[in-house]
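Narrative of activities, Objective 1.

The group set out to show that a structural description can be obtained from nothing but a protein's sequence at a throughput compatible with the screening campaign. Below is one input-output pair from the validation batch, recorded exactly as produced.
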Amino acid sequence: MLKNLLSNRIFIGILVLLICGVVSVYFLRTDIPEEPIKIYTPVEPMPKPKAEAPIGETERGGHVHEDGTWHEGAHEAHQNPAAPSSAQIPDGITDPEVLAAWQRLDYIAKNPFEWGGHQSDRALELMDELTPMWVIDDPHDHGEELMMTLDLLAEERDPRSAALLLMYQLDSPVSGRPIREALAAMGPAAVPAVIARLNPEDAADVFMAPIIRDVVVPIVAQHRSELGSIVDYIILPRLEAIAALEDPPGDTFVVSNRSRARDALARIKK
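Output recorded for this entry:
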């Protein structure tokens, strides 16, 4: 019988197929490849690209930081050291009306654009160029470049430049009508900076007569209602103190400042 089975070709074919199947299953189970070994090569992180535009430079209505990030909206401009941000309210004020006047002045200092003017990026650039104050050491230098830069700043009519313009007008040998015209055009927004420099104690050393004539008087005449009690309780008392100064010894500015203060009092009180 075995001989008959072996001589049967069909049986032999089936047997061969079974043997091949068993062998294939065996090798498939025993020859599973191991997980390949991974080799990691340390790679240093790529540095972040720096912004091509400086801080404050706008792009598509936004701004770019130094680390390359971009944000919507304009970058908040930095404040120039000379720009007034608040009024220095004196200590020990007991009169409520006087205190209200100083609080009104402080409000104006903190909200300069409420009375017009515009926030000029060019003005901030010029203020940076002019800070700290230029010193002219060369006797042959008549300050043409400085005067041109100051005139450009005055043309911007940015209230944030009021204190800086006053500093050059009062503390440097370079001054001019464009500065005073700009301050007068700023209106109430320039008053906090003007009052800060309208000190009777400085009347001997600071030539403030042009500021009294060309800035204080026009602003009070045009904006008295907006200034309110500031005129009665701050501006007038300071002018009266300057007008009452006696002649000190030596060559000072008291005579000129006193004369302009008296003239301003007559104009404001009429």
